[in-house]
């Protein structure tokens, strides 16, 4: 039987076998992925009104791909105070943001209590805002620095009002590649355990994959399968609470950092990866074509290749843009809506948990 048919019949295949999905042309993969996304969401494209806040770029880790952290190539260290973070949240809320996405470098300077106080202060100032914060890499960093145990860190996050976790820090789970690109950071097993425990607490999170550097197709598929596996936990599925909301493939931005690559990703390879994600990740509801990473244009095309979400207005994007992406100032709500509609889709503003708020 044809490989695609075997995959759609949910035959148990390994990453090596499944990586052969890339041998199909993009139209075949796209048609199947588009069919699956339309079954669930018709021709809706989701976006949200959000604000990214990155409290500091001072980092104890040295990931080769990172252009955001203060380093020899980026000698502009900064550190925000809790007051600044709160005031950015209030201003974003007044402009219509429903979510703040707070992710930091792994700072040697902030105390454990600083994080808890900061989240409490944000939630106290704007109780209505959805607080999406702390990558699994940060949770692991705090656990190791302050000897807390990752479970305690996650439980404390719940107590101070963190609503959901973003998907950062996943990079590529393959241990060899990971060792080369981000040695010393949270390992793959722990990244997955942290999200799994968060899901057991009844909370939602996202998951990412950084691709287009030194990884190969098998590594990408292996990454997706590891995510699909933890999403299968029967207790969590039965409880109908907690789990991954969205998978976000992040295209590697190759400027101002220490990871030199020889093979640049084609648009075709990016779209195939998005289609394969939709086909393989049948238990993760949303595939986010993060426009800051893909560009607005390709993120819109990706909506015909299995993606159903663009991410949000962002207001201030520091990580992809540090690596060369044109996303520094976010995108206005008006432009986001116009672009989605011009591409022939229905523009749906959602909240952070994908409840539909308004159609434009
Ligand atoms: O973990 C770092 C990546 C991630 C580069 O959960 C890079 O809704 C490309 O996770 N080129 C952080 N990527 C961003 C992130 C995210 C973004 C938007 C929404 C959500 C969500 C999560 O950015 C890091 C890392 O994988 N990254 N450097 C780079 N040069």
From TrEMBL:
4Fe-4S keyword on record: yes
Purpose of the protein: Radical SAM enzyme that catalyzes the addition of the adenosyl radical to the double bond of 3-[(1-carboxyvinyl)oxy]benzoate, leading to aminodeoxyfutalosine (AFL), a key intermediate in the formation of menaquinone (MK, vitamin K2) from chorismate.
Keyword field contains Iron-sulfur: yes
Protein name from the UniProt record: Aminodeoxyfutalosine synthase
Keywords: 4Fe-4S, Iron, Iron-sulfur, Menaquinone biosynthesis, Metal-binding, S-adenosyl-L-methionine, Transferase
Gene (UniProt): mqnE
Cofactor section: [4Fe-4S] cluster
UniProt: [4Fe-4S] cluster binding residues: 59, 63, 66
Catalytic reactions on record: 3-[(1-carboxyvinyl)-oxy]benzoate + S-adenosyl-L-methionine + H2O = 6-amino-6-deoxyfutalosine + hydrogencarbonate + L-methionine + H(+)
Enzyme class: transferase
Any one GO biological process: menaquinone biosynthetic process
EC number: 2.5.1.120
Domain Radical SAM core residue range list: 45-285
């Amino acid at each position: 039987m044809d490989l695609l048919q075997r995959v759609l019949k949910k035959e148990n295949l390994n990453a090596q076998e499944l990586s052969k999905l890339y041998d199909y042309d993009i139209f075949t993969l796209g048609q199947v992925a588009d069919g699956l996304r339309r079954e669930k969401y018709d021709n809706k494209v989701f976006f949200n009104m959000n604000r990214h806040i990155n409290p500091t770029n001072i980092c104890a880790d040295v990931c080769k791909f990172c252009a955001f952290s203060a380093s020899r190539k980026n000698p502009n260290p900064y550190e925000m105070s809790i007051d600044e973070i709160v005031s950015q949240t209030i201003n974003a809320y007044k402009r219509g943001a429903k979510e703040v996405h707070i992710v930091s470098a792994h700072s040697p300077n902030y105390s454990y209590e600083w994080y808890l106080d900061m989240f409490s202060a944000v939630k106290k100032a704007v109780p209505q805002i959805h607080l999406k914060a702390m990558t699994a890499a940060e949770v692991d960093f705090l656990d190791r620095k302050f000897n807390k145990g990752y479970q305690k860190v996650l439980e404390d996050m719940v107590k101070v009002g963190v609503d959901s976790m973003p998907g950062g820090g996943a990079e590529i789970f393959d241990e060899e590649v990971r060792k080369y690109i981000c040695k010393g950071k949270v390992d793959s097993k722990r990244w997955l355990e942290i999200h799994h425990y968060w899901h057991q607490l009844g909370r939602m999170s996202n998951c990412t994959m950084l691709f287009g550097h030194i990884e190969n197709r098998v590594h990408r598929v292996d990454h997706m399968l590891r995510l699909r596996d933890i999403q299968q936990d029967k207790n969590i599925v039965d409880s109908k609470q907690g789990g991954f909301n969205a998978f976000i493939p992040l295209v590697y931005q190759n400027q101002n950092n220490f990871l030199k690559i020889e093979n640049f990703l084609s648009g075709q390879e990016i779209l195939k990866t998005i289609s394969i994600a939709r086909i393989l990740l049948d238990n993760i509801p949303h595939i986010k074509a993060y426009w800051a990473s893909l560009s607005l244009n390709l993120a819109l095309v990706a909506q015909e290749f299995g993606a159903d979400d663009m991410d949000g207005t962002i207001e201030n994007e520091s990580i992809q843009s540090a690596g060369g992406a044109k996303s520094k100032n976010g995108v206005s709500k008006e432009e986001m809506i116009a672009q989605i509609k011009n591409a022939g889709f229905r523009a749906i503003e959602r909240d952070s948990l994908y409840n539909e708020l308004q159609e434009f």
